[in-house]
């Protein structure tokens, strides 16, 4: 489960329901046909349509309504899985909706659904699911999308059209959401809508959010996507700041470790090499050329990040949690393999109505990963898109598991402090303060936070929220490592409650 390119670059009341196990039936599921799907043609774009079918709890053990399907746009087809909220909205057209996008690039959002925060999670045998009492669909409907095309159950009719940057699917995703909200599930017409995800979603989320805002402003009489906020978990926003954060993560006890991961000799070498790495990455961001940025990446891997990453693998180091072992090569989390096993069952394909074009499901797409690695996408920062969101009164939450290395807390704190915007002065003047959550029935200090609420538009009293929240005892995947805390974090954010 390589959530980022980092490793590849080294080498050439329902909450009280008991969680019963729902194993996959031994009886073959009936084959899905075109008649099983309802198709919605976009009223905005003749090239976009959505085919959707209702699911029962056979594949995902949850009491709520659920639907799967594909967004079809020409030769491209994006897979989605939608779940209603456990707590229904009292309004017929203002039910909350959250979109989840796993990173990578090339990671399937079924990782988030079945391993981390979905209404159901994989059972220990990989042949069924169990109800997740900490699923994120308590107070909001959830939709999980495999994107960009070529990832998971999303596919293209043409093998030579794989995307290679974070902007490539933003247009299709915006029209998909516009059609989905206005025509398929108008209960979400007035929102609020939030985009969330982790890892490389630090690129996906700001670019999609910016595209939504831009289209809403350009076409005010078209159906609007009611984007209220984004919540980015351990996201890759700024590659230089993330690399700079390697030293603090590995050479201090700041992540919450009893002693530094690296010895002084390694730390001194990394520190000595850091200025050269930062200089060449700065040049890359100023002149984003694939050859130049590729050379910058090579320098930084060879001289800084590679000291840890070259030791990653089964039985070795884990880049997603510096305190945990790596159970399997590339993925490190063996439970992720259960997802692949489960979704590749013939009965899973039949129940979902997977088309013949898809021969095999994979949680990661090496082809998409390689396509991105040949461009400058990983090295460029998405801070301009974050700025655009804030300027247009979209709230931004950055949440961080402190034990992560690949998208570390030190790097997030660095870019968030250096980020130039109207709220920078107030944000940087504040210190991180402890926040508490109820864990196993006891109120416990679980991390730190700071946030500001800034009036972004002249003459408008509405404030826009920017928050940085950390979670102790968690690595790259906060909902996996600290599920109770993660649900509380999301619930507070959606409700507009502070973390103090």
Automatic annotation (TrEMBL):
It holds the Pfam family Peptidase_S10. The keyword Aminoacyl-tRNA synthetase does not apply. GO terms for molecular function: serine-type carboxypeptidase activity. GO terms for biological process: proteolysis. It is an enzyme of class 3 (hydrolase). GO terms for cellular component: fungal-type vacuole. Its EC number is 3.4.16.-. Residues 1-15 form the signal peptide. Belongs to the peptidase S10 family. PANTHER family: SERINE PROTEASE FAMILY S10 SERINE CARBOXYPEPTIDASE, Y, PUTATIVE-RELATED. This is Carboxypeptidase. The lineage of its organism: Eukaryota, Fungi, Dikarya, Ascomycota, Pezizomycotina.
């Amino acid at each position: 489960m390589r959530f980022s390119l980092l490793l590849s670059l080294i080498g050439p009341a329902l909450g009280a329901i008991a969680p019963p196990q729902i194993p996959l039936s031994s009886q073959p599921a009936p084959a899905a046909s075109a008649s099983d799907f309802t198709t919605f043609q976009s009223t905005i774009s003749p090239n976009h349509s959505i085919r959707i079918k209702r699911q029962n709890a056979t594949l995902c053990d949850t009491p709520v309504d659920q639907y799967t399907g594909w967004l079809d746009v020409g030769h491209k087809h994006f897979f989605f899985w939608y779940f209603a909220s456990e707590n229904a909205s009292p309004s017929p057209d203002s039910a909350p909706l959250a979109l989840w996008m796993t990173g990578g690039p090339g990671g399937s959002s079924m990782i988030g659904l079945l391993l981390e925060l979905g209404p159901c999670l994989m059972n220990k045998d990989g042949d069924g699911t169990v109800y997740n009492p900490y699923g994120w669909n308590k107070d909001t409907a959830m939709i999980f999308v495999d994107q960009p095309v070529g990832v998971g159950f999303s596919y293209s009719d043409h093998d030579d059209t794989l995307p290679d940057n974070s902007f490539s699917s933003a247009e299709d995703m915006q029209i998909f959401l516009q059609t989905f909200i206005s025509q398929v599930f108008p209960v979400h017409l007035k929102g609020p809508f939030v985009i969330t995800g982790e890892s490389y979603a630090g690129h996906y989320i700001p670019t999609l959010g910016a595209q939504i805002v831009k289209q809403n402003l350009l076409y005010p009489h078209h159906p609007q996507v009611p984007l209220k906020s984004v919540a980015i978990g351990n996201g890759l926003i700024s590659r230089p700041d993330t690399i700079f954060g390697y030293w603090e993560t590995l050479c201090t006890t700041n992540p919450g470790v009893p002693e530094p991961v690296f010895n002084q000799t390694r730390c001194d070498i990394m520190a000595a090499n850091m200025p050269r790495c930062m200089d060449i990455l700065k040049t890359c961001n100023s002149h984003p050329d694939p050859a130049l940025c590729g050379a910058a990446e090579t320098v930084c891997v060879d001289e800084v990040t590679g000291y840890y990453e070259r030791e990653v693998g089964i039985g070795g180091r884990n880049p997603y949690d510096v305190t945990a072992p790596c159970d399997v090569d590339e993925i490190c989390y063996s439970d992720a393999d259960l997802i692949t096993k489960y979704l590749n069952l013939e009965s899973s394909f039949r129940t979902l109505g997977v088309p013949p074009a898809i021969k095999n499901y994979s949680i990661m797409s090496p082809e998409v990963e390689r396509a991105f690695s040949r461009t400058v996408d990983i090295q460029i920062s998405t801070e301009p898109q974050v700025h655009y969101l804030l300027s247009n009164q979209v709230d931004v939450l950055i949440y961080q598991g402190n034990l992560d290395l690949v998208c570390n807390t030190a790097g997030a704190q660095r870019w968030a402090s250096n980020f130039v915007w109207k709220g920078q002065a107030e944000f940087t003047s504040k210190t991180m303060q402890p926040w508490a959550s109820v864990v196993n029935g006891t109120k416990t200090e679980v991390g730190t936070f700071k946030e500001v609420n800034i009036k972004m538009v002249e003459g408008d009293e509405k404030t826009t929220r920017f928050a940085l929240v950390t979670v102790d005892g968690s690595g790259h995947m906060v909902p996996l490592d600290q599920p109770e805390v993660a649900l509380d974090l999301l619930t507070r954010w959606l409700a507009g409650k502070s973390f103090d």
